[in-house]
Design brief:
9-stranded mixed beta sheet, 4-stranded mixed beta sheet, GMP Synthetase, Chain A, domain 3, 15 strands, globular, single chain, alpha/beta
Length: about 400
Amino acid sequence: MKTTIKFLVMIFLTTLLTGCWDITEPQRMYYINAVGVDYVDNEYEVFLQIINFADVAKSVQPSSNAAPADVGRAKGKTVEEAIYKLYRSSDQEIFWGHMRYLIFSERAMENERAIPVIDTFIRFRDTRYQIWIYCTTNPVNEVLLVSPILKNSLSSSKLSNPINPTEQETFVEPKNIREIVIGLNEPNHEVTIPYVSIKKDWQTDEEKVEETYFSGVGILSKDGFKGFVKDEAARGNQWMHNYTNQGEITFKLTTDGKEDLTVNIDKLHVKVLPIVKEEDVYFEAKLRINATVDGYKGKVNEKELKKHIIKEIQKEIQNTYKVGLKLDVDIYRLSEYLYRDNVKAWKRLEKDGKIPLKEDSIRKITIDVSQINPGRKTFSEIIKIKRTNSSE
């Protein structure tokens, strides 16, 4: 009898336990991969990119009859109002936990409009800090609808996962929400955001196909948008941070301009030293790199190669720096180096959160080419090895 009573009590108690009855089934949700934000007619225009995760689970390449993405759009006085309008037109619950990136139009970054947008996604409990941020001058919805090469899933695109493509060439440094917030809250209160454009560099047997392209950076400050540094003007930025895995420089080896050489640069290490002299501050940049030479017909000695490599990288660093000055931008975050090294001097010299810079503020750029690798020796050796001082 006692055993029966205990058994009945246990059955009764199990009815009080919570279960998964209130959990939405995965197939009954839409999954946000990306969000685009524009600003039109004094309203935010929000684009939500929804991708089919069923195809991602089956294989890297989705089925040909499935749409790679659907993009919804709505306007509102705030980003939240626009999102709620899209909720009304959605057939299923929208899940935000897989959101990969956020892309701004130029208009959405002007006049501090991007700040409340970033704040919205920081405060929302379902999103994470590892959301990549980009900017563009192309229509935002067109960028969101670009399919990756070979029609791969959008979850494996360069915008969803920028780490993979930047392993081979780090023209721009990817930035996530966490890094943007830190950069805006600390000197120089300016951050570079990867600038994305659309190009047709690839094609199938039927047509040319569109693909997203890292073209430079946009500069966002706590006071609003400063402008873009694009293409050749942005080349120096890759040599002034330690994130760069690999890059390239191409230069003329002869004065007649007939001989071109491309050199791969890797194992980059950068150190910036602020030097305070009374009411002025100057900066010295010290770089250590390795170089690999491929695809050159001819002979060149190591000393000559180092001279050209050093000259070209110095020129690119200075060119990008001067473009930044024209935009009133501390593009290399030199103010932060002084802030970390000598906060008393920074407090004495700063104006509006950053150090006033001049054309000669970067006083010296020292480049140590630690090693030059000639690559595979398929033909006769192209580099005549002659040990020289690396600082020459």
